[in-house]
């Protein structure tokens, strides 16, 4: 039921990847995504896979756990694959049935594009699995901070994200409880046509809205009672600090880039 | 409509790093007309167990039988079972959603598919049972009521289905003393006058002592003790070791015994201890006379 959804999906641990500064993890993840878009041939993909594999090994996350995260994407992957097979232009025909031509290039494209998607999702999963949501928003706030001089509400945005993330499990739990309570009164959420099902949601949504507003009100009061007044002059409990780990990680990423660029120039 | 649990295990979020075992080999039978209190500290599995009794949760292994029917069977209509085993959740006022008190109480009977007049009769009767005036409150918005009144509307919403077994998860949580008295009085009346089977989760040992005929103590998802209040409350040490309390009367009895005043073993009701005190001061009559 609703409670079974693992959102934010932070996988607690104490690996070097977990201990890295969230800012560098965020930036290096973006760098990896750029890297994945630079590669264009088999050795390049092997390098990207190898790099990902090493990071996953170091982070202590089971590879199977990461693969499970791909499950919701299986249709998008299938779709990407089929579209690329069907609509890629190519010269070497492998198979031809009526209007349909399966070309070597089309097949290659399909495999590469799907792999690229897999790498993207797995790479970003490593970030969200090893970084708690609070650390992640902290990093975002820091990285967006320079924009504040243009009037960009970096702190407010980060605070909103932190609060939203903090309340996702609470609201899910609440929704689960209300749903069960209404089921105990014979509510039926599972059968009927679309309209009947939409109508069946009313007994769930009304109490959920009421309690969300009450919670928001309570939270605002509690924050004000502790003198919250926005980001100005606010110090932090945990200062983010780059350590030697971040330097090593940066060097690894540089090495990865040197390898894929060299490989692209030699073999591409 | 007896309810039986046979070797029930329940695991939350199996296969993830957050996996926890909430129920561990729970066996129990609740007979018709019993008043059972379920006690145990937070996280001992009471609420999880309660949700098994009407099939809202299905055991990871083991069986729950209501009236001899296995709730996990394909042929069992779990929705029908829920009309017979009424479950009042903690803070039930959080589930109110309709525009008026009457409509909210009618939600259950409507789901039962009852005719209009029967729904009307049941709403009136349920409101009367929880001591809310139909004339005054039926057309009011549920969100205008006081906390205690909202609680009673929510309970009325379950009573309107006329369940044979009523399960209440901490029905008095967060109420003021007067609200507590009202809810407890209502539960007692339901049990005594309508013969409804009651299963009540409670943290108040005094409420349990005053009302229950049988007490089940849970710890770490297991049933640690099961017996009459007299049996359970005579084991003060074991209860305290589990982070639980004893009724005030039992505490008083223990303190009296420590000072050499004889109080009969197993006394747990205020009246019993008062009797012991009276006979100890014995001469009381002389003094008075």
Summarize it:
The complex is a heterodimer of chains A (268) and B (289). Chain A is mainly alpha-helical and 268 residues long.
Question: What does it look like?
Answer:
The complex is a heterodimer of chains A (268) and B (289). Chain A has helices at 16-19, 22-38, 42-59, 63-68, 74-87, 104-130, 133-144, 154-184, 194-200, 202-225, 244-267, and strands spanning 93-97, 100-103. With 268 residues, chain A is mainly alpha-helical. Chain A has a domain at 10-131 and 246-268. In chain A, a hairpin with a 2-residue loop joins strand 1 (93-97) and strand 2 (100-103). In chain A, helix 3 runs antiparallel to helix 11, helix 7 runs antiparallel to helix 8 and helix 8 (154-184) packs across helix 10 (202-225). Chain A is flat. The N and C termini of chain A lie far apart (50 Å). Mean pLDDT of chain A is 86; it is low at 1-8. Chain B has 289 residues and is α/β, with parallel strands linked by helices. Chain B has 13 helices and ten strands. Chain B has helices at 46-52, 78-84, 101-112, 116-129, 134-137, 147-159, 177-194, 205-211, 229-233, 236-241, 248-258, 270-281, 284-288; strands at 3-12, 20-30, 35-39, 61-66, 69-70, 85-88, 165-169, 197-201, 214-219, 222-227. A six-stranded mixed sheet of chain B has the order 6-7-8-3-9-10, with helices on both faces. A four-stranded antiparallel sheet of chain B has the order 2-1-4-5, with helices on one face. In chain B, helix 3 (101-112) runs parallel beside helix 6 (147-159). The termini of chain B are far apart. The model of chain B has no long low-confidence stretch (mean pLDDT 91). The chains are: A mainly alpha (268), B alpha/beta (289). At the A-B interface, helix 8 and helix 10 of A face helix 2 and helix 3 of B.
């Amino acid at each position: 039921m609703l409670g079974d959804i693992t959102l934010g999906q932070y996988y607690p641990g104490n690996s070097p990847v977990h201990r890295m500064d969230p800012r560098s993890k965020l930036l290096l993840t973006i760098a990896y995504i750029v890297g994945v878009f630079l590669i264009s041939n088999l050795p390049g993909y092997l390098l990207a896979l190898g790099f990902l594999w090493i990071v996953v090994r170091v982070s202590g996350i089971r590879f199977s756990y990461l693969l499970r995260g791909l499950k919701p994407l299986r249709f998008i992957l299938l779709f990407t694959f089929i579209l690329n097979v069907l609509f890629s232009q190519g010269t070497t025909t492998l198979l031809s049935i009526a209007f349909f031509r399966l070309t070597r290039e089309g097949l290659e494209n399909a495999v590469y594009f799907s792999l690229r998607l897999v790498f993207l999702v797995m790479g970003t999963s490593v970030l969200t699995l090893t970084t708690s949501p609070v650390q992640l928003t902290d990093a975002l706030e820091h990285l967006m901070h320079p924009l504040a001089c243009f009037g960009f509400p970096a702190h407010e945005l980060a605070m909103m994200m932190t609060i939203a993330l903090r309340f996702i499990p609470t609201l899910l739990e609440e929704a689960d409880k209300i749903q069960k309570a209404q089921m105990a009164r014979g509510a039926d959420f599972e059968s009927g046509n679309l309209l009947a099902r939409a109508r069946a949601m009313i007994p769930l949504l009304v109490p959920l809205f009421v309690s969300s507003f009450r919670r928001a009100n309570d939270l605002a009061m509690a924050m004000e009672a502790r003198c919250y007044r926005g980001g100005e002059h606010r110090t932090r409990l945990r200062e983010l600090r780059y350590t030697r780990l971040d330097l090593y990680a940066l060097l690894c990423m540089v090495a990865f880039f040197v390898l894929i660029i060299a490989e692209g120039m030699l073999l591409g | 409509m007896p309810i039986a649990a046979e070797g029930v295990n329940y695991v939350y979020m199996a296969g993830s790093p957050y996996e926890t075992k909430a129920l561990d080999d729970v066996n129990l039978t609740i007979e018709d007309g019993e008043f059972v209190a379920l006690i145990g500290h937070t996280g001992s599995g009471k609420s999880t167990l309660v949700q098994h009794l009407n099939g809202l949760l299905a055991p990871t292994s083991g069986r729950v039988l209501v009236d001899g029917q296995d709730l996990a069977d394909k042929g069992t209509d779990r929705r029908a079972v829920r009309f017979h085993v009424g479950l009042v959740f903690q803070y039930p006022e959080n589930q109110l959603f309709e525009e008026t008190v009457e409509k909210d109480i009618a939600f259950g009977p409507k789901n039962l598919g009852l005719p209009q007049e029967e729904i009307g009769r049941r709403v009136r009767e349920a409101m009367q049972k929880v001591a809310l005036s139909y004339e005054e409150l039926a057309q009011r918005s549920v969100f205008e009521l006081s906390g205690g009144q909202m609680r009673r509307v929510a309970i009325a919403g379950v009573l309107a289905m006329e369940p044979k077994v009523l399960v209440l998860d901490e029905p008095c949580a967060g109420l003021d003393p007067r609200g507590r008295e009202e809810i407890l009085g209502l539960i007692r009346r339901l049990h005594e006058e309508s013969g409804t089977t009651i299963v009540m989760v409670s943290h108040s040992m005094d409420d349990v002592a005053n009302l229950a005929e049988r007490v089940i103590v849970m710890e770490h998802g297991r049933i640690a003790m099961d017996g009459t209040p007299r049996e359970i409350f005579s084991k003060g040490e074991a209860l305290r070791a589990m982070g639980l309390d004893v009724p005030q009367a039992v505490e008083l009895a223990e303190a009296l015994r420590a000072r050499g005043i004889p109080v009969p073993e197993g006394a747990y009701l205020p009246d019993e201890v008062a009797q012991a005190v009276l006979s100890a001061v014995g001469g009381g009559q002389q003094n008075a006379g």
